[in-house]
Amino acid sequence: MARSGGFEPPTAWFVAMLAFKTERAQILHTEELPIERKVCQAASDYKHALQCPEFAAANGCTADDLRHDLFVFVVQSERESLDAVSAQPSLAPHTE
C-alpha cells in the first residue's frame, strides 16, 4: 500500500525475490544488455528446462530456480518501465 508521497519500502519477501538463484542469471545480470533481452534469455532458459530437465541439472539448478530468476528479470523490467514513465511529466501518474 502506498504512503502519501511515495511507496512503501519493499517487504522482506520482495527483497528475497530479487536475489538470483542461478549462476546463469547472475552472469546474465552483469551483461551490458537491454532488460528485454535478459527477460527473453531467462524465458528461453526456463522453457528449455521444462522441455529437458537435464538442462537445469547440467547448470546446477532446477526449473523452479530458472522460473524464479525469470520473474526477477520481469520485475526489473517493470521497474525500469515505471521509472521511464515517471520521468516523463506528460506520462507520470496523476496524483491529487
Q: Overview of this structure, please?
A:
With 96 residues, this protein is mainly alpha-helical. Helices cover 65% and strands 0% of the residues. The protein is built from 5 helices and no strands. Helix 3 runs antiparallel to helix 5 (63-87). The longest helix is centred in the C-terminal third of the chain and has 25 residues, at 63-87. It starts with 11 loop residues before the first helix and ends in a 9-residue tail after the last helix. Residues 1-5 have low confidence and may be disordered.
Topology:
Layout: H1 12-17, H2 23-30, H3 35-51, H4 53-58, H5 63-87
Helix pairs in contact: 3-5
Q: Helical segment tally? A: 5
Cα gyration radius (Å)? 16 Å
In terms of DSSP E residues, the strand content is under 5%
Task: List segments where confidence is low: pLDDT < 50 over at least 5 consecutive residues.
Answer: 1-5
- Number of β-strand runs: 0
- Characterize the largest beta sheet: strand count, sense, and whether it forms a barrel: none
Mean pLDDT: 83
Approximate helicity band:
55-70%
Global shape: elongated
The class by helix and strand makeup works out as mainly alpha
Q: Give the end-to-end Cα distance, rounded to a whole number of Å.
A: 17 Å
Q: SSE order, as H and E?
A: HHHHH
